[in-house]
Write a structure and sequence with these properties.
The complex is a heterodimer of chains A (about 400) and B (about 450). Chain A has a single domain, classed as Alkaline Phosphatase, subunit A (3-Layer(aba) Sandwich). Chain A is about 35% helix and about 15% strand. In chain A, helix 1 packs parallel to helix 8, helix 1 packs across helix 9 and helix 10 packs parallel to helix 11. Chain A has 13 helices and twelve strands. In chain A, the strands form two sheets. In chain A, strands 1, 5, 6, 7, 8, 9, 10, 11 and 12 form a nine-stranded mixed sheet that branches. Chain A has a three-stranded antiparallel sheet with strand order 2-4-3. Among the domains of chain B are: about 190 residues, no CATH class; about 120 residues, no CATH class. Chain B is about 55% helix and about 5% strand. In chain B, the strands form two sheets. In chain B, strands 1-2 form a two-stranded antiparallel sheet. Chain B has a two-stranded antiparallel sheet with strand order 3-4. In chain B, a hairpin with a 2-residue loop joins strand 3 and strand 4. In chain B, helix 11 crosses helix 12. Chain B starts with a helix and ends with a helix. The chains are: A alpha/beta (about 400), B mainly alpha (about 450). Chains A and B meet through helix 6, strand 7, helix 8 and helix 9 of A and helix 5, helix 11, helix 18, helix 20 and helix 22 of B.
Chain lengths: ~400, ~450
């Protein structure tokens, strides 16, 4: 009996994409790659990158304040003012190489505190909940080309997230908790589907994404790989898709578990584990991309931030502004922020980090400068109703 | 066996069980009869608790969670999550057991369809604990009556009022709103969320001809539509937890104008009057009939059929029975071309029915639907799940269907002759090509995998 992997290989070898070298591949080697990482649940921007030199930091953060750089397991210094969480060692290393841009006190236009609505605004790209029913990254795909079977973008998720939903064809892949189907059955299915265009096309797409995924050591049954480790795995898998011939060049990775209302922890604990998984995943992404990393940008964003001070259960509650990270070989490193300060009077509604930058300014720059989408199209079609959010100008290496 | 029998079972019903296609009754009569007879839901559904009971329980846990501090906090968080999860699993078990066993599958399909039209999504607390109760209490009793009654029942249910934030929406000039402003609170909190979705999703449709002003007026008219125990303390904590409660003190006083018509203030009745008018508005009729035709006939609804049903709706004051009867008379609904690609939900339910398997624990089903991208009652948005092959036709989703077919076949395949089962549940829609290749499978298990994953079974 054929092994599953043999069948997958044989099937993808027969597809048009693998067989026709003259074909314009979705991801020619030199083309820009983009990975959007959505941290769902409102990730604490002040834990990702702490303003340790802000005179109000230690007092406001109380038991959740991280130690200054130089102390045992202290923050990883960026510029004498901000420091990265000690579990973000790889991000810090990349910062040293000029490949990380920290964007602080950023937020979507959303100003309430519901995850559901906050994620909707983050992903629909409009200025309010339900403003648009499709996602901004899907709208951005139109000028990039790529049709059915030659998708430009993949979601590493069971559900295609709103940000990638819409009229443009996208593909998806998620780990399975079901035992794999054997190669012989798959081969018979390809015959069964032969005369049905709808099924044969999708089956072929599935086989090629399975073939890419199959090259990885997935550790067999991935049951139990939920939580933080799934983020690491999905970023590792994203690298394979983004480097596969004819594969996508945009990937969306989602991660839950950032809603730290209780026992958030400092250098250890729930949030530290999440950040360590993110850091490990980014490391896996970088090494998986190899040379491709040099023309890659990764944006790590969340729907909103958390309260500046600690709540009664040693956690933080829903806030407003947070931090975002833009990293990769294509990124011009540094820090961009109009820092509002952590003094009580500087806080938004007396509790949250005040937003001073619209996340869409970052997204617009990624689309127009990194992915080379016409600026007019980005302004009119991708982010209508965003005139006040001008694209940032120096995020990428010229 | 006629094509009509097959379509009645597999397109209008939830999928044939072995034997279902052999019934002699006229298929249209069989469907119509499901609408007219009084229908007791199955025992699992009847045994479910009611919303007030469940909300009281989970809100108490929530309150303990929020009031707690120190070492016992994680335990309390876990207790809340466990309680919510157990209600969710109990309700999904009841739903899929009822769907697998019912002799009125057309009626049951309508229950699922309308629950999705008025979607509440289990990704916002405490919806997962009560989404199934919403389906049974607000939707199930009204699927064959007037659309106005269905609409009002859905909007008044605690699950909807919590999901779309109406329970604490405060009229700016209400007693409480005025008081809050006097104390210097900037925005005492009119919430437009529910009103907007009523107009955009539940009734007129996004291009149904309403303005932002209409959204605000409707939002004001339904201020006060709240539930008992909606808040932690103070006024909002009053009332029987988990039951509809009209709160005069947050209701925006005065007349409201919606779609050019003036509605004098009449407390609760003001909002009800607007909803009744919306239910029979031509835009509503067209919007909802389009969705019905998309669900039962084709992803691209034939415009003439939508026109006919819209006229029926308007001529019968939104009586759904008349609309369904017309739909069942439409020749477009009975052609074998343009068959619908099943949603994951349809696929799983029809598999349970084909194999006569009534789940007593829904985890197998919930996990499968989760992998295929249609976690029960969790569409992630008030727009509900989509209803076209374009949306469900993801490559990964098909692969998950194949893997799940394989898992199911390993459980049931040794006892099942796949070719005989294909004949029994697909009838003449079982193609010779599929039949041949399934008969050549190396084992019954493999044959059943191929049958369930076949284009013939994956469409309805």
């Amino acid at each position: 009996m054929l092994t599953r992997r043999e069948v997958l290989k044989r099937m993808t070898a027969g597809t048009a994409l693998a067989a026709a070298p003259g074909l314009v591949l979705a991801n020619a080697d030199t083309e820009a790659r983009f990975v959007l990482v959505i941290l769902r649940g409102a990730a604490d921007g002040l834990a990702i990158a702490a303003a340790y030199a802000d005179p109000h930091y230690a007092r406001q953060r109380g038991g959740l304040a991280l130690s200054a750089p130089g102390d045992g397991d202290g923050l990883l210094d960026l510029d004498g003012f901000f420091g990265l969480h000690p579990r973000l060692a790889l991000v810090h290393e990349l910062y040293g190489e000029g490949q990380v841009r920290l964007l602080h006190a950023v937020a979507s236009p959303y100003r309430e505190r519901s995850h559901f609505d906050g994620q909707d605004v983050l992903e629909n790209g409009g200025s309010r909940v339900g403003a648009l029913r499709d996602g901004w990254l899907n709208r951005a795909l139109k000028p990039l080309g790529g049709g059915v079977g030659e998708e430009t973008a993949i979601a590493l998720a069971a559900n295609t997230p709103l940000v990638l939903r819409g009229a443009q064809s996208t593909t998806s892949w998620a780990p399975s908790r079901l035992p794999g189907t054997d190669g012989d059955t798959l081969e018979r299915l390809s015959v069964l589907y032969r005369d049905d265009a709808f099924f044969s096309e999708r089956f072929a797409q599935a086989m090629s994404s399975q073939a890419v995924a199959g090259e990885l050591d997935m550790g067999g049954d991935r049951r139990g790989r939920r939580g933080p480790r799934l983020l690491t795995e999905n970023l590792r898998v994203a690298a394979s898709f983004l480097t596969a011939a004819g594969g996508p060049r945009i990937a969306v990775v989602e991660s839950g578990g950032w809603d730290t209302h209780a026992n958030q922890g400092t250098v250890n604990g729930a949030l530290a584990n999440q950040l360590a998984a993110l850091d490990a995943g980014l490391g896996a992404l970088r090494s998986g991309l190899g040379q491709t990393w040099s023309h890659t940008a990764v944006a790590v964003v969340t729907e909103f931030g958390r309260t500046v001070s600690v709540n009664g259960t040693r956690g933080t509650d829903h806030g407003t502004a947070s931090a975002a990270l833009l990293l990769g070989g294509a990124v011009n490193g540094g820090i961009t922020t109009d820092w509002p300060g952590l003094g009580q009077r500087a806080l938004y509604e007396g509790r949250d980090l005040k937003p001073t930058m619209d996340l869409r300014s970052v997204f617009k720059s990624i689309l127009s400068e990194h992915l080379e989408t016409p600026e007019r199209y980005v302004q009119r079609e991708v982010f209508p109703d965003s005139n006040a959010a001008a694209p940032l100008k120096d995020l990428f290496k010229g | 066996m006629s094509q009509t029998v097959i379509i009645a079972n597999n397109r209008f019903g939830l999928g044939a069980r072995p034997g279902d296609l052999d019934r002699r009754e006229d298929p249209r009569d069989w469907l119509l009869e499901q609408l007219s007879t009084h229908a007791e839901p199955g025992p699992a559904v009847r045994a479910l608790p009611r919303t007030p009971e469940v909300l009281a329980e989970v809100q108490t846990l929530r309150r303990e969670q929020q009031a707690s501090s120190g070492a016992d906090a994680p335990d309390i968080v876990r207790r809340y999550s466990r309680a919510v999860r157990s209600h969710y699993l109990e309700q999904t078990t009841a739903r899929y057991a009822a769907a697998a066993a019912t002799d009125r599958p057309f009626r049951e399909r309508l229950v699922h369809l309308w629950a999705n039209h008025f979607a509440v999504s289990a990704d916002k607390q405490p919806v997962p604990a009560i989404a199934g109760l919403f389906e049974n209490e607000a939707i199930r009793p009204h699927v064959t009556g007037s659309f106005a009654d269905l609409l009002i029942a859905a909007e008044r249910h605690p699950a909807m009022l919590l999901y779309l934030d109406n329970a604490q929406s405060i009229g700016p000039n209400s007693t409480l709103g005025t008081r809050a402003r006097r104390r210097g609170r900037r925005n005492p909190g009119l919430n437009e969320n529910l009103a907007r979705e009523i107009l955009e999703l539940h009734t007129l449709g996004v291009s149904g001809g309403y303005s932002q002003g209409d959204v605000v007026s409707l939002a004001e008219a339904i201020t006060g539509w709240s539930i008992g125990g909606a808040g932690q303390r103070g006024r909002f904590a009053e009332g029987t937890p988990g039951t509809f409660e009209f709160r005069e003190m947050i209701h925006e006083p005065g007349a409201k104008t919606v779609l050019g018509k003036r509605y004098p203030d009449a407390g609760l009745d003001q909002g009800l009057a607007i909803l009744r008018d919306l239910a029979t508005h031509p835009s509503t009729a067209r919007h909802v009939c389009t969705k019905l035709v998309r669900h039962f006939v084709a992803d691209a609804p034939p415009p003439e059929l939508v026109d006919r049903l819209t006229a029926t709706w308007l001529g019968n004051d939104g009586e759904l029975g008349a609309v369904y009867a017309d739909l069942l008379r439409a020749p477009e609904a009975w052609t074998d071309t343009d068959r619908k690609y099943k949603s994951p939900h349809d696929f799983v339910v029809s598999t349970l029915r084909a194999l006569d398997r009534i789940p007593d624990d829904s985890r197998f089903v919930v996990n499968a639907l989760d992998l295929m991208g249609q976690t029960p009652w969790r569409p992630g948005s008030p727009a509900g799940w989509p209803d076209t092959a374009a949306e469900w036709g993801g490559a990964d989703s098909l692969y998950k269907r194949i893997e799940w077919s394989d898992s199911v076949a390993r459980l049931a395949g040794k006892r099942t002759d796949p070719v005989a089962l294909g004949d029994a549940v697909l009838g003449s829609s079982f193609s010779n090509h599929s039949r041949t290749w399934i008969s050549r499978a190396e084992s019954r298990v493999q044959g059943l995998t191929l049958l369930l994953a076949s284009p013939d079974f994956q469409r309805r």
